[in-house]
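Homework help board

Subject: predicted structure for assignment chain

Our instructor gave us this sequence and asked us to write out the predicted structure in C-alpha cell form, then describe one feature. I got the C-alpha cells but I'm not sure how to describe them. Can anyone check?
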Amino acid sequence: MAGFRSLARQVRDPRCDLALRRYSLRKCLERFAPYGHRATWDHLCSRAGFGPEDRSPDPARLVAALEELEEARSVWLAYEVEFAERRRKEKHDGLRRPGSVDDWHRLTWGGFGVAWCDDPRVHPDGPLAEVLRRLISALEREPGSVCPVCDGDRLVWKYDLDHEPSTGPVCTDCGILVPRPVLTPDALADARRGRLLMSA
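My C-alpha cell output:
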C-alpha cells in the first residue's frame, strides 16, 4: 500500500495520466484527512477551484490542493512529535495517567478526523494548516467557551456522528466537532442542554 509521500509524488508527476493523479490525491486522504475523508475532499476542491466530481481537473489545481494538504500534515506531524515528547517526559516524571487531551489525541493519532466535520459540505473556510494551528493552540491553553477554529459561540450537542466519539459539541458556524478538552465544563453543559453559547 502506497504511503502519503509516494501518492503525493504521483499527484505531481506530469507523466501520470490525469485520472491517476486525481485518484492519488483522493488516496492521500486515507492517510491524512483532518475533517474526515469526504469533508476534507470537499474543502480541498473548493479551495483549489475544481468540483468534487470533476474527473479531469486542471493539474495545477490538483497540485495546489495537495500543497495545502501537505502543509497541514506538516503542522500536525510536528504537533504529534511534541505530544509524544511531552508524554515521555511526563512518564519519566511519574505522571502515568493521561489527561483528557491525551484521551482525545489517542482517537486522532495520524490526523484523521482531528477537526471532524460530520456534514461534508460544512467545514471551515480557511487554509487547513491555519485551522490545525488554531486547534493545537487551543489544546495547549486553558479551556474556553467558543470554537477554537472560528471563535463561533454557537455550539450544539450532536448525537450519532459518523466518528469516534459519536456524540459531542459541534460548532454550527464552521461545522467541526469541537474537542471536549478545549471547552470549559460550563460550555459543555450548555451545549448538552441545547443552549447556544453567547460570548461575553
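Reply (TA_rk): Your C-alpha cells look well-formed. For the description, you could write something like this. The radius of gyration is 18 Å. That's the kind of observation they're looking for.
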